[in-house]
């Protein structure tokens, strides 16, 4: 799946490269901007996630059970505000990611076959626009960011199996303020001094996710999430 995202990303870069790549453009000295984008997300599965501990555990009958989380392709809505200084930019970004849940399964006699997961990610990113990756009005850039995933929200529905509770077929689990970092590869194409089109590939890692129901902190054990997104959007400079 990641290879398909990478291939799509670089195929979309090709139209930006033209025979006019040697044209000199004004040097950006100080420019504020706002970016708005939308894209696709691949969320790798989480396998062998342990059960939580104590009264809040997902199933205390099988305390050593492990769970496999499988996700479908999702979408991302992204906004960012920042400032560019010549070859560097710094920005604050917020990404809202939503993906459907394919299943949560284990050997405990229950299985979740529907639902969704949402992630709200707040990052401070540093971007680098190298001169040798500038081609006319197009500029490839590299970036990295640190921040938090303000909320992870897992909603499980259609819970089936021999031990399923038909009176409790919907369950919601959340976690807050998880340490997060990401790497960014992007290209920006300037239409004029005010408006640009950008395309970004983001590889994000969310650490120490403990999904919990209610006040419990250990419904599921620790797992790490790694959403990979490709976002296309508009950048407004002023």
Describe the structure.
By secondary structure, the protein is mainly β. It has one domain: Beta Barrel (Porin), CATH 2.40.160.20. The chain contains 1 helix and 11 strands, in the order αβββββββββββ. The chain has an 8-stranded antiparallel beta barrel with strand order 1-3-4-5-7-8-9-11. A hairpin with a 5-residue loop joins strand 4 and strand 5. The longest helix has 12 residues. It is elongated.
What is the topological layout?
Elements: H1 2-13, E1 31-42, E2 46-50, E3 66-85, E4 88-105, E5 111-128, E6 134-135, E7 138-160, E8 171-190, E9 195-209, E10 223-225, E11 228-237
Antiparallel strand pairs: 1-3, 1-11, 2-3, 3-4, 4-5, 5-7, 6-7, 7-8, 8-9, 9-10, 9-11
- Order of H and E elements: HEEEEEEEEEEE
How many domain regions?
Answer: 1
The CATH class turns out to be: Mainly Beta
State the secondary-structure class: mainly beta
**Percent range for β-strand residues:** over 45%
Helix content class:
under 10%
Strand segment tally: 11
Order of strands across the widest beta sheet? 1-3-4-5-7-8-9-11
What is the rounded distance between the termini? 37 Å
Weakly predicted, low-confidence segments: 5-24
CATH fold node name: Porin
Gross geometry: elongated
Q: Average pLDDT across residues? A: 86
The number of distinct helices, counting runs of at least 4 residues, comes to 1
CATH architecture: Beta Barrel
Features of this protein?
5% helix, 11 strands, eight-stranded antiparallel β-barrel, elongated, Porin, mainly beta, 61% strand, 238 residues, single chain
Quick structural summary:
The protein is built from one helix and eleven strands. The chain is mainly beta. It has a single domain, classed as Porin, CATH 2.40.160.20.
